[in-house]
Amino acid sequence: MITPGQIRAARGLLDLTQADLATKAGVSLPTIKRHEKGASDHKVIEETRDKIQRALEKAGIEFLPENGGGAGVRLRKEN
Predict the structure, then answer these.
(1) Which of 4, 24, 30, 40 sits between 20 and 30 A of 11, alpha carbons compared?
(2) The domain over range 4-75 is classified in CATH as 1.10.260.40
(3) What is the pTM of this model?
C-alpha cells in the first residue's frame, strides 16, 4: 500500500501537478488531493489507490517498501 508521502514524492520526481496525475490515473483532482492529504474522513478505496500507483509506475516510479528506514520512491533506472 502506497502512502500519501510516496504519492507526493513521486509527483515531485516526475514534475507532475496534482491535475496531471489525476489525468494519468483516470481519477478526479479532489481524489488526488484527498489521497495526498491522507484524509481520515474519507474511505480510501483500494482500487483508486491502485490506479494512482499504476499511473506513477508507468511514468517511471518505483515504490520502495518500508524497511526500517521508511517507505520511499525512486525513478526507475533506464536501460
Answers:
(1) 40
(2) yes
(3) 0.87
